[in-house]
């Protein structure tokens, strides 16, 4: 790349590039960058969101966050979700994709997936195709707390009393994590399958020839080879862990209950804005969330950095 | 996901809030449609400047061909009463006018940006779980003072003013601001109580309990028949239960208990009346299965229709809301909440009744006079009768049910009303004024009714929340005397 004087040729070249970029860039600035900047601006105001007039209040909104027990409950829940949801999703997805691609033993000297793996791939991907709201409504019926719930009526057949999946404050958040994992796994099965497919089969076969069992094959060969993909999945899921708005909104008791047991930041942001009309404070929560997500992403990329294996 | 008919929940949110409404004003342009584009508020112009001459049949001087935009909350009442009756009535008066109608559920989310930019409709039925925050709206001078409407001649008899043909208390229910002005027309007459199937009660030989001792005896009897004596939906309708707690508290200690709560008076929640009421209802809560906390209102209401629940706390919209799911032999009836102590200040017959379902006219609409005229047409006998016919709900218009046969539930409401006489439990305005406090009350009501906290803890936690609201400088405080 040449830097320096703008020769006519350079102008032509940049002009060509710019002409392609200008439309998407304009859209990106108008619909993404500018609202985000405005939210940061709003975080320092007492805007109520229904009038163009407001005052700047400095850091008052952020100071208020420190005393807000609901805010901290939401942050704690993100902590739990952040530990559990990516870990469970990735483990299950890795296990499934290993079975689907390499776990079926050898045929004609080649490693293959378990029987019917093509079918399972489609089935696992299914939840990913459904909108989160639909997943929420589905699980409303599945997790209904009385004996008419799908899960509870199944448990009833084996003599177990109905479980209050979403109404027991100790269980509710885990139930929601479970639903999130159910929805996430399919996508990562496909992602990891693609990752495994891009690794030359000879490596696996060589390992198998050297006497590696499935266990060794999985932990000592497969995972290191697709580590990059796992890392990407981890970041995606981590960011997803800071959302969970739709699931909590649809599934939980009284939006975030019982007793704040399931509330998450996006829900509180929404509540502050559209129920309490405190757009300033709500934006401050949003800014806090942005910093949480950025910190997480930076930390993850740093901690999980490894030598990339070339093949 | 929209929680459908919660039409009454925000209903009095527009009460007693706000500033002087500015009349009319050109729609703010493109620039102010950004959330942070600064305070370029349009200069207020007098409504009269764009108006036509006034007359008895056109008291607000509506321009005959001015278009009118109406936004109706499409909840339990649907919006057919507007499209099939009120809007045609307006068009009959002004054949040259075109009406733009919008029937939606998310009033707040849809209209907030429009208020922010100044491009507002002319009539808004501000209702539902996502209604606009009236306090904030009036604070920003966005609503029109409805005094001219109530002083105008009525449609049916120009010798009578509008204020003389509606149920007393209606105007007061929509008061706001300092000095107080009516900003909201509450159109629907609503009564609250315990709803039951009179056919089932007759078959079992039950009568609705008049005291909490009777309530417990009744609960045992119902339980013996495998019927849940009392239940509500904790997932999205815990406020149905806190209404009952508040009504009982008012019966014990009088309306000032609730007025003190609305005024955020010191230790208002620590009053013995609140604790006694909460304790009494928590006892009834013990007869409820835990699973009700995870169900929504329609699921619980359907269970009642199936004869699985005896008493259900709700308001007079219930019968219409359940019309599709109610079996033919099911006959809705309503009873007041039982008395808690022998020394209650209000009798058993006392009932919480209020004008509800707010309609407002935005101050900066293009046809604000048309907005007032639309409300005047709604308050005609024909408009009110059509509303009752379509929604099975009474309006605040006096004598508008002539010639209509009332359904069993509506008849029961009317009977309960007659029995109550002057013993009316006041409506809690904090529900609309202080949503933070209201949200906390929903939370703690579930915790109380499903046995996680005691009545004492309930009062303590609510007092903490009330103090927090009181000390929050960003919340505009309001007070009421009656």
From TrEMBL, chain A:
It comes from the Bacteria. GO terms for cellular component: plasma membrane. InterPro entries: ABC_transporter_permease, MetI-like, MetI-like_sf. Keywords: Cell membrane, Membrane, Transmembrane, Transmembrane helix, Transport. Its main location: membrane. GO terms for biological process: transmembrane transport. It is found in: Cell membrane. It is a multi-pass membrane protein. Residues 75-300 form the ABC transmembrane type-1 domain. Pfam families: BPD_transp_1. The chain crosses the membrane at residues 12-33, 80-102, 122-143, 171-191, 225-248, 279-301. PANTHER family: ABC TRANSPORTER PERMEASE PROTEIN, DIACETYLCHITOBIOSE UPTAKE SYSTEM PERMEASE PROTEIN NGCF. Belongs to the binding-protein-dependent transport system permease family. This is Sugar ABC transporter permease.
From TrEMBL, chain B:
Coiled coil: none annotated. Gene3D superfamilies: Periplasmic binding protein-like II (3.40.190.10). PANTHER family: ARABINOSE-BINDING PROTEIN-RELATED, SN-GLYCEROL-3-PHOSPHATE-BINDING PERIPLASMIC PROTEIN UGPB. Belongs to the bacterial solute-binding protein 1 family. This is Carbohydrate ABC transporter, N-acetylglucosamine/diacetylchitobiose-binding protein. The lineage of its organism: Bacteria, Bacillati, Actinomycetota, Actinomycetes, Streptosporangiales.
């Amino acid at each position: 790349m040449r830097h320096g004087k703008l020769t006519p040729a350079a102008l032509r070249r940049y002009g060509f590039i710019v002409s392609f970029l200008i439309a998407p860039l304009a859209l990106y600035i108008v619909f993404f960058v500018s609202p985000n900047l405005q939210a940061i601006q709003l975080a320092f105001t007492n805007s109520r969101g229904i009038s163009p007039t407001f005052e700047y209040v400095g850091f008052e909104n952020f100071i208020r966050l420190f005393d807000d027990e609901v805010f901290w409950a939401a942050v704690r829940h993100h902590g739990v979700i952040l530990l559990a949801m990516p870990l469970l999703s990735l483990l299950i997805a890795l296990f499934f994709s290993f079975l689907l691609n390499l776990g079926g033993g050898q045929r004609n000297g080649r490693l293959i997936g378990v029987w019917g793996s093509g079918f399972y791939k489609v089935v696992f991907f299914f939840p990913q195709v459904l909108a989160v709201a639909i997943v929420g409504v589905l699980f409303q019926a599945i997790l209904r707390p009385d004996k008419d719930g799908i899960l509870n009526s199944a448990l009833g057949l084996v003599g177990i009393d109905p479980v209050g999946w979403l109404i027991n404050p100790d269980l509710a958040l885990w139930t929601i994590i479970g639903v999130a994992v159910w929805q996430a796994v399919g996508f990562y099965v496909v992602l990891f399958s693609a990752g495994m497919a891009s690794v030359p089969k000879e490596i696996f076969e060589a390992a198998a020839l050297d006497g590696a069992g499935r266990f060794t094959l999985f932990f000592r060969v497969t995972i290191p080879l697709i580590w990059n993909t796992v890392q990407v999945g981890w970041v995606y899921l981590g960011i997803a862990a800071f959302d969970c708005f739709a699931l909590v909104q649809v599934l939980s008791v009284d939006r975030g209950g019982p007793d704040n047991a399931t509330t998450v930041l996006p829900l509180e942001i929404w509540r502050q804005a559209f129920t309490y009309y405190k757009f300033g404070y709500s934006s401050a929560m949003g800014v806090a969330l942005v910093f949480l997500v950025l910190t997480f992403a930076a930390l993850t990329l740093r901690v999980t950095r490894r030598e990339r294996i070339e093949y | 996901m929209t929680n459908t008919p919660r039409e009454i929940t925000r209903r009095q949110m527009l009460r007693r809030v706000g500033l002087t409404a500015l009349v009319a004003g050109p729609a703010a342009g493109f620039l102010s449609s950004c959330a942070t584009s600064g305070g370029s508020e349009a200069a207020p112009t007098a409504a009269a400047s764009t108006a036509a001459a006034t007359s008895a049949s056109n008291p607000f001087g509506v321009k005959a061909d001015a278009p009118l935009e109406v936004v109706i909350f499409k909840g339990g009442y649907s919006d057919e009463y507007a499209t099939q009756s009120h809007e045609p009535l307006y068009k009959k008066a002004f054949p040259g006018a075109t009406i733009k109608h919008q029937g939606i559920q998310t009033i707040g989310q849809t209209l907030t940006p429009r208020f922010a930019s100044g491009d507002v409709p002319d009539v808004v039925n501000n209702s539902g779980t996502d209604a606009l925050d009236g306090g904030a709206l009036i604070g920003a001078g966005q609503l029109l003072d409805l005094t001219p409407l109530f002083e105008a001649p009525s449609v049916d008899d120009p010798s009578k003013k509008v204020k003389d043909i509606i149920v007393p208390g209606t105007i007061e229910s929509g008061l706001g601001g300092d000095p107080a002005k009516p900003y909201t027309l509450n159109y629907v007459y609503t009564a609250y109580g315990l709803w039951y199937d009179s056919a089932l009660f007759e078959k079992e030989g039950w009568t609705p309990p008049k005291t909490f001792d009777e309530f417990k005896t009744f609960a045992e009897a119902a339980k013996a028949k495998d019927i849940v004596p009392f239940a509500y939906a904790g997932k999205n309708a815990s406020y149905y239960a806190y209404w009952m707690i508040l009504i009982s508290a008012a019966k014990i200690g009088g309306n000032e208990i609730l007025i003190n709560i609305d005024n955020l008076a010191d230790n208002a929640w620590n009053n013995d009346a609140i604790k006694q009421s909460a304790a009494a209802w928590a006892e009834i809560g013990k007869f409820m299965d835990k699973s009700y906390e995870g169900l929504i209102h329609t699921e619980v209401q359907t269970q009642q229709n199936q004869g699985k629940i005896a008493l259900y706390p709700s308001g007079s919209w219930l019968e219409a809301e359940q019309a599709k799911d109610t079996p033919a032999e099911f006959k809705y009836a309503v009873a007041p909440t039982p008395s808690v102590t022998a020394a209650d200040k209000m009798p058993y017959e006392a009932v919480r009744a209020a004008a509800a379902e707010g309609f407002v006219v935005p101050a900066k609409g293009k046809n604000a006079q048309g907005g007032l005229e639309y409300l005047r047409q709604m308050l005609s006998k024909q408009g009110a009768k059509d509303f009752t016919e379509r929604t099975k709900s009474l309006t605040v218009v006096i004598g508008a049910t002539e010639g209509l046969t009332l359904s069993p539930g509506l008849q029961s409401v009317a009977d309960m009303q007659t029995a109550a006489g002057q013993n009316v439990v006041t409506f809690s305005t904090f529900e609309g004024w202080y949503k933070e406090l209201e949200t906390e009350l929903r939370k703690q009501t579930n915790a109380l009714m499903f046995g996680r906290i005691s009545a004492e803890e309930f009062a303590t936690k609510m007092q903490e929340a009330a103090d927090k609201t009181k000390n929050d400088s960003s919340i505009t405080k309001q007070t009421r005397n009656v």
